[in-house]
Design brief:
Elements: H1 4-30, H2 33-37, E1 61-62, E2 67-68, H3 69-78
Antiparallel strand pairs: 1-2
């Protein structure tokens, strides 16, 4: 489980990206990089980390499911993810 402060920081970044998305797009289109530089750093979409929705783990996350590999394996073996089954051949 990730620290709550790390999860909260990432959620704050998500809110900032949504808030400044239109302004950023306009500034990039206009080529005004000086004004773009004055925006908050965390308003850039690349600063958002893809995290597991259950544990907050930042590595090994399947974006399609929003789960880290540990939770994905656990839920798939329990049959809680529809359409997912263990491979056997």
């Amino acid at each position: 489980m990730a620290k709550k402060s790390v999860i909260a920081r990432n959620e704050k970044r998500i809110r900032l990206v949504a808030k400044y998305a239109d302004l950023r797009a306009e500034l990039i289109k206009a080529g005004d990089y000086e004004a773009l530089r004055k925006l908050p750093r965390d308003s850039a979409a690349t600063r958002v980390r893809n995290r597991c929705v259950l544990t907050g783990r930042g590595r090994g996350v399947y974006a399609k499911f929003g789960l880290c590999r540990h939770m994905f394996r656990k839920f798939s073996l329990e049959g809680k993810l529809p359409g997912i089954k263990k491979a056997s051949w």
